[in-house]
Write a structure and sequence with these properties.
5-stranded parallel β-sheet
């Protein structure tokens, strides 16, 4: 009697599993810190070969948007109760340059030019000196327009209107200039006060005023 070949049952193989997705190791997100770079060329600031007068807002708006803006109030109110205070240690000779770098960084990270007021205790910023050569009226008219960075003598802080960010450069000047003007600058800052100068002197003044 012929033998019937045994019918082999099909082997059921376990389906191959796809590659496992390993979650990326957790990393702490760091706030990007753009490297301050030169701003768009505009009217050169007299007396300084490098930095130039801040370009009008229209020119800045044409630039590609930088990376994410560091955590800060999106549209801070000038009437904020307690502004953040940032200290940038610098000598009297280097305070103005430190203030310029702070302004560049603020603009590079998305701050509107009209948000920023820069005060100096010693020699005026070259932009201020240049604009004042045309008279007080047009100079303060630019302040009132509020559409660009404004530079002023710290002794005139009472005349300056508050802005979200105030940059205060302790670059010399008469004795007691910092102690007199810095508390007023703190009142003018809506969200952030950046002070460039001698750390001990600044902490002494701010400790008495805050």
């Amino acid at each position: 009697m012929p033998l019937t070949p045994a019918i082999e049952e099909p082997q059921i193989h376990e389906s191959a599993q796809g590659p496992r997705v390993t979650p990326a190791a957790s990393r702490t997100a760091q706030t990007p810190r753009p490297v301050p770079g030169p701003r768009p060329a505009a009217v050169p600031r007299p007396g300084r070969p490098g930095p130039v007068r801040p370009a009008p807002p229209a020119q800045r708006a044409a630039q590609p948007a930088p990376g994410p803006v560091p955590a800060a109030p999106a549209a801070p109110s000038v009437s904020a109760a307690v502004p953040q205070v940032q200290l940038i240690p610098a000598s009297a000779e280097g305070a103005l340059d430190a203030a310029e770098e702070a302004v560049d960084l603020l603009l590079d990270t998305g701050r509107a030019p009209g948000d920023i007021l820069v005060l100096t205790t010693g020699d005026p910023h070259p932009w201020a000196a240049h604009e004042l050569s045309f008279g007080e009226a047009p100079y303060w008219a630019q302040h009132d327009a509020g559409d660009d960075v404004f530079y002023a003598d710290a002794a005139q802080v009472q005349r300056a209107a508050g802005r979200p960010v105030v940059v205060f450069a302790v670059n010399g000047g008469p004795a007691g200039a910092t102690a007199t003007a810095l508390p007023a600058a703190l009142e003018r800052a809506g969200a952030l006060l950046i002070v460039c100068g001698d750390a001990a002197e600044i902490n002494s003044v701010l400790g008495a005023s805050v």
